[in-house]
Amino acid sequence: INKTRLGYDYDLEKLQAKIQAVLNDSTQVIFVAETNNKVVGYIHLVNYDVIYADNFKNCLGLAVDNDYKRNGIGSALLKQAEIWAKENGAVGIRLCSGVEREKAHQFYQSQGYEVTKLQKNIKKIF
Q1: Measured between alpha carbons, how far is residue 59 from residues 67, 85, 112 in Å?
Q2: Residue 57 DSSP SS3
Q3: Strand, coil or helix: what is 123?
Q4: How many CB atoms lie within 10 A of CB 126?
Q5: In the sheet where 38-48 sits, what is the strand order?
Q6: What residues have CB less than 8 Å from 103, skipping those under 6 apart?
Q7: 9, 22, 95, 111: most buried by Cβ count inside 10 Å?
Q8: What is the pTM of this model?
Q9: Are the CB atoms for 60 and 78 separated by under 8 Å?
Q10: How far apart are CA 74 and CA 43, in angstroms?
């Protein structure tokens, strides 16, 4: 799903290690949607607790397999994420979405999310 939906071609062993780390970290969560014992979608959240705002949860990824899109899976994952966020002291969920992902933006807005600012993603790789 990461590769086909999000464009992230990441080493499987590294991915498995990262998932295990998330499962062992109470500040993060991954919810998955399954159909016939196959993962068809997921959402990953982590604390976003900065010193200048109330605690949010940061959605680091939400993806649904192409064959299962438009069946309510993304909405159900987002709803579960919101429940977890509230239960864990957050006032809301924030996320970043690439400017080219217009359908994703429409989806989030249909779920009550609003665009609050545009920004550049800046990083340095070592």
Answers
A1: 23, 10, 15
A2: strand
A3: coil
A4: 2
A5: 28-35, 38-48, 56-64, 93-95
A6: none
A7: 95
A8: 0.88
A9: no
A10: 8
Number of residues that make up the chain: 126
Sort strands 38-48 and 28-35 into parallel, antiparallel or unpaired.
antiparallel
State both tokens at 23: 């499962």
Residue identified by tokens 């249909």 is 110
Name the CA dihedral angle for 119, 121, 124, 126, rounded to a multiple of 10 degrees: 160
Q: What would the two tokens of residue 124 be?
A: 């340095």
| Token pair recorded at residue 34 | 């399954």
What one-letter code names the amino acid at 26? Answer: S
Q: Tell me: pLDDT of 52 over 90.
A: yes
Please state, in angstroms and as integers, the Cα–Cα distance from residue 97 to each residue in 26, 34, 39, following that order: 25, 24, 22
Provide the token pair at 70. Answer: 């438009």
Strand locations in the chain, DSSP E?
Answer: 28-35, 38-48, 56-64, 93-95
33 vs 121: CA distance, rounded Å: 29
Residue found under tokens 């809301």: 92
